[in-house]
C-alpha cells in the first residue's frame, strides 16, 4: 500500500530504520540498525548498494509484515510494518526489505519491493542506476499531453481494437511503450496474443489462483492484420528511432500468433527498412521464431529468471516446451544476426548467488547474447523464495555481480531498455 511520509527533523549520519503504522504513516524507529534482505539472508547494506530515492520512486508499506532490524548485535522483529520502495525504470534493486513472512498470510501484490531507510534526512534505497536513458524519464510522459494525443488518434481510427487496447495500457497501466505509440516516437507497443504457454508465478496480466490479483487485465482478442498494419505504418513513418515491439505486459506469449506477426513483418519490411521489429518472448517456440527471423525481425528479448532449469521451471511453469527450447531460440537468433537481449528477472540473493552465477556464466559463454536487460522481478519475496527457489540462498551483491559480468564478458552490454539497433548503441554501458 502507498504510504504517507511524516518524518521528524533528523541530522544523524547513521542509518535509521523506517516503519509504517497501520494508518499508513511512516516514522523513524531510532536505536535499530536497518537491514536489507539478500535471498534468505539478512544483513546491513553496503555503501555501494544504496542511493537516494530517485525521482519517480515511491514508498509503500507491507501489511502485517513486521520489519527485521539489528539491535545490540541481535536480529529483532520490531513494531509496525516493513517499508519498501518501488523503483522507476532504469534502476536495479540490490536488496529486498528485510521482513519475516507471518504464517497463513496471503501473498503480497506483484511489485518489485526494495529495501529502504533514512539517513541525513533523506530516504535511501537499496538500488543502483543501470541505464540512465533520458527517453524513459517520467517527464517525457505528461498525462495531459498523452490524453490529448490518444483522443485525436482514436477519433481518426475508432474501429481499431488494438489501438484502443494500447490506449488503455498507456493510461490505466502507465505503460511507456504504449504511450510512445501516441507520442509517435521510439519504442512502441503492439500486443497480439491473448494466450500463453507459461503459467508464470508472477504473471502481471493473468492472476494465479490462489494468489494476489494481477495489476493488469489480459486483453481478450487477436487483432486483425489490418489493425496491426495501421499501427505499424503510422509509427514507422512518423517516429524517431522507430521500434515496434510484440510482447507486452497486457498479453501472453506473442510467438503463438506466428502467422499474424510473420505477415506484419513481411508486408512492411521492404517499405520501412529503418523501422525496427522487436519481439519480447519467452523463447518457447524456436520453430515459430525462425519464421520471424527469415521475415525480417531485427531484435528480440528473451525472458528468464534463472539459468538453472529447476528454478526456471518453478517460476515459468512451462506448458509443452522446455528450457532447451529457450536456449535454441537464442542460438538461432544469433545465427540469423539478430540483436539478442536477455530480459533477466533479477532478485537480490538469487540472481547474484554463487550457485546461480556459475550456471548463468556458462549460459552466457555458450549463447553470447548482446545485451542483458535487468528487470526487477515483481513478486512477493517470500512467495518466490518458498515456491520457486526452495533452498537457503544469499548473494555476493548485485553491484559486484554486474561488475564481474563486465569483466568476464566485456562484449555483453548491461542496461534496462531495448536499443534502436540501427543506430549507435554506445549509450549502453559495456
Q: Look at the structure and give the mean pLDDT.
A: 92
At the fold tier of CATH, the topology name of the largest domain is TIM Barrel
Determine the CATH superfamily of the largest domain.
Aldolase class I
Q: Architecture of the largest domain, according to CATH?
A: Alpha-Beta Barrel
What is the molecular shape? globular
User: How is the main sheet built?
Assistant: 7 strands, parallel
Number of helices: 11
Amino- and carboxy-terminal Cα gap: 37 Å
Strand content: 15-25%
Secondary-structure-based class equals: alpha/beta
Provide structural commentary:
This protein is α/β, with parallel strands linked by helices. The chain has two domains: 4-129, no CATH class; 134-415, TIM Barrel (Alpha-Beta Barrel), CATH 3.20.20.70. It has eleven helices and 23 strands. The protein has a seven-stranded parallel sheet. Strands 1-3-2-11-8 form a five-stranded mixed sheet, with no helix packed on it. A three-stranded antiparallel sheet has the order 4-9-10, with no helix packed on it. Helix 9 links the parallel strand 21 (339-346) and strand 22 (371-376). Helix 2 packs across helix 3, helix 5 (258-268) runs parallel beside helix 6 (286-295) and helix 7 packs across helix 10 (381-389). The radius of gyration is 22 Å and the shape is globular.
Topology:
Elements: E1 4-5, E2 17-20, E3 25-29, E4 33-34, E5 36-38, E6 41-43, E7 51-52, E8 58-62, E9 68-71, E10 74-77, E11 81-86, E12 91-93, E13 96-97, E14 116-119, E15 122-125, E16 127-129, H1 143-156, H2 161-171, H3 176-183, E17 187-189, H4 225-238, E18 243-246, H5 258-268, E19 276-281, H6 286-295, E20 299-304, H7 309-316, H8 323-335, E21 339-346, H9 354-367, E22 371-376, H10 381-389, H11 398-408, E23 413-415
Parallel strand pairs: 1-3, 17-18, 18-19, 19-20, 20-21, 21-22, 22-23
Antiparallel strand pairs: 2-3, 2-11, 4-9, 5-6, 5-13, 7-15, 8-11, 9-10, 12-16, 14-15
Helix pairs in contact: 1-2, 2-3, 4-5, 5-6, 6-8, 7-10
Amino acid at each position: 500500500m502507498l504510504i504517507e511520509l511524516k518524518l521528524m527533523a533528523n541530522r544523524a549520519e547513521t542509518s535509521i530504520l523506517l516503519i509504517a503504522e497501520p494508518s499508513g504513516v511512516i516514522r523513524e524507529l531510532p536505536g535499530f540498525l536497518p537491514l536489507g534482505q539478500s535471498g534468505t539472508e539478512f544483513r546491513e547494506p553496503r555503501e555501494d548498494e544504496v542511493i537516494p530515492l530517485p525521482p519517480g520512486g515511491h514508498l509503500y508499506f507491507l501489511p502485517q509484515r513486521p520489519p527485521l532490524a539489528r539491535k545490540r548485535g541481535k536480529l529483532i522483529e520490531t513494531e509496525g510494518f516493513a517499508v519498501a520502495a518501488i523503483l522507476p525504470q532504469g534502476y536495479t534493486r540490490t536488496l529486498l526489505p528485510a521482513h519475516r513472512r507471518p504464517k497463513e498470510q496471503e501473498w503480497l501484490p506483484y511489485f518489485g519491493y526494495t529495501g529502504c531507510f533514512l539517513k541525513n534526512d533523506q530516504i535511501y534505497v537499496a538500488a543502483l542506476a543501470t541505464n540512465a536513458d533520458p527517453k524513459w524519464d517520467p517527464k517525457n510522459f505528461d498525462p495531459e499531453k498523452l490524453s490529448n494525443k490518444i483522443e485525436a488518434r482514436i477519433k481518426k481510427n475508432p474501429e481499431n481494437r488494438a489501438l484502443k487496447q494500447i490506449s488503455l495500457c498507456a493510461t490505466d497501466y502507465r505503460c511507456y511503450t504504449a504511450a510512445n505509440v501516441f507520442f509517435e516516437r521510439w519504442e512502441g507497443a503492439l500486443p497480439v496474443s491473448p494466450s500463453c504457454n507459461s503459467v508464470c508465478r508472477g504473471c502481471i496480466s493473468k492472476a494465479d489462483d490462489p494468489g494476489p490479483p494481477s495489476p493488469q487485465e489480459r486483453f481478450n482478442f487477436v487483432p486483425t492484420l489490418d489493425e496491426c498494419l495501421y499501427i505499424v505504418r503510422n509509427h514507422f513513418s512518423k517516429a524517431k528511432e522507430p521500434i515496434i515491439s510484440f510482447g507486452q505486459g497486457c498479453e501472453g506469449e506473442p510467438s503463438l500468433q506466428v502467422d499474424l506477426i510473420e505477415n506484419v513483418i513481411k508486408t512492411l519490411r521492404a517499405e520501412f527498412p529503418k523501422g525496427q521489429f522487436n519481439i519480447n518472448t519467452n523463447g518457447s517456440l524456436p520453430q515459430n521464431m525462425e519464421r520471424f527471423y527469415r521475415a525480417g525481425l531485427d531484435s528480440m528479448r528473451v525472458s528468464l529468471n534463472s539459468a538453472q532449469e529447476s528454478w526456471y521451471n518453478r517460476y515459468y511453469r512451462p506448458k509443452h516446451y522446455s528450457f532447451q527450447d529457450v536456449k535454441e531460440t537464442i542460438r538461432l537468433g544469433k545465427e540469423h544476426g539478430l540483436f539478442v537481449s536477455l530480459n533477466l528477472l533479477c532478485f537480490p540473493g538469487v540472481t547474484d548467488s554463487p550457485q546461480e552465477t556459475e550456471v548463468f556464466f556458462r549460459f552466457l559463454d555458450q549463447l553470447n547474447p548482446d545485451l542483458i536487460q535487468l528487470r526487477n522481478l515483481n513478486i512477493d519475496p517470500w512467495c518466490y523464495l518458498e515456491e520457486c527457489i526452495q533452498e537457503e540462498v544469499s548473494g555476493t551483491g548485485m553491484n559486484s555481480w554486474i561488475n564481474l559480468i563486465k569483466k568476464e564478458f566485456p562484449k555483453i552490454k548491461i542496461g534496462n531498455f531495448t536499443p534502436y539497433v540501427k543506430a549507435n548503441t554506445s549509450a549502453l554501458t559495456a
